[in-house]
Structures are given as C-alpha cells and as structure tokens.
C-alpha cells in the first residue's frame, strides 16, 4: 500500500515536473516562434523597401537619361542657332557694307550731278550770251 502511495506520489511529482518542463518548453518555443515571426516580418518589410528603392533608382536613372538626351538636343539646337546667327551676322555685315558703298556712290553721283548742273548753268549762261550776241 505504501509502495503504491509512494509510486503515485512519485508519478505525480514526475508528472508535475514533466508539465513544468513542457510548459517552459512551450513558452520558449512560443518565444522563439514569435521572434521568428518578427524576423520574417522585418525581412519582408526590408525586402519590400529594397524593391521599392530599386524601382525608385530605375525611375531616377530613366529620368537622368531623358534629361541627358534633352540636354544633348538643346546643345545641338544651340549649335544650329549659333551657326544661323553667324550667317545672319555675315549677311548683315555684307549688307551694311553694300549700303555704305551705295551711299558713297550716291554721294559721288550727286556731287557729279551738282558739278554737271553747275556746268549746265555756265553753258546755259554762255548759250544765252551767245544768242544775245547773235541776235544783236
């Protein structure tokens, strides 16, 4: 009888120790599982952030390439406009020289015309004098 009672007490104590170990093990397992879940969640968040950053980098790189193309196009447009401006300046300079030359020619022609007009007046006076002599 005592043996059975001791045996029951022994089994009861073993069961209590087993339950306590099981409870502690479950608590540790739950803690490990919680840490694992947190780690997986953080890893997923980090992975999502990495993908988002990668997408942003691609977008920025595309924008940079587009802007580089736009700058190259603007430089080419500027080069073409500069060439056109130089041609226009050359034409203007040539036209200004032509205008100056024509003004000089006009002035020379006017001077000759004034000289011829003076000669005409002298001749008219001489003709009138000659006629007056002839008529007299």
List keywords for this structure.
single chain, 136 residues, mainly alpha
Written overview of the protein:
The termini are far apart. The radius of gyration is 57 Å and the shape is rod-shaped. Helix content is 99%, strand content 0%. With 136 residues, it is mostly helical.
In short:
It is built from one helix and no strands.
The number of helical runs is 1
Terminal CA distance: 195 Å
Give the overall shape: rod-shaped
**Averaged pLDDT:** 94
Instruction: Tell me roughly what share of residues is in helical segments.
Output: over 70%
* Number of distinct beta strands: 0
Gyration radius from CA atoms, angstroms = 57 Å
Which sequence of SSEs, written as H and E, runs from N to C? H
Point out poorly predicted stretches: none
**Beta fraction:** under 5%
User: Given the helix and strand composition, which structural class is it?
Assistant: mainly alpha
Largest sheet: none
Annotate the secondary structure layout.
Layout: H1 2-135
């Amino acid at each position: 009888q005592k043996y059975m009672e001791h045996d029951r007490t022994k089994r009861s104590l073993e069961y209590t120790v087993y339950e306590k170990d099981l409870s502690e093990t479950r608590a540790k397992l739950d803690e490990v599982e919680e840490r694992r879940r947190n780690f997986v969640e953080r890893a997923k968040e980090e992975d999502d952030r990495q993908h988002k950053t990668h997408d942003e980098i691609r977008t920025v790189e595309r924008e940079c390439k587009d802007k580089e193309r736009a700058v190259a196009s603007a430089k080419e447009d500027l080069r073409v406009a500069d060439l056109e401006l130089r041609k226009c300046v050359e034409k203007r300079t040539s036209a200004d020289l032509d205008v100056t030359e024509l003004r000089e020619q006009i002035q020379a022609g006017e001077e000759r015309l004034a000289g011829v007009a003076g000669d005409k007046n002298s001749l008219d006076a001489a003709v009138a004098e000659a006629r007056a002599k002839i008529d007299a």
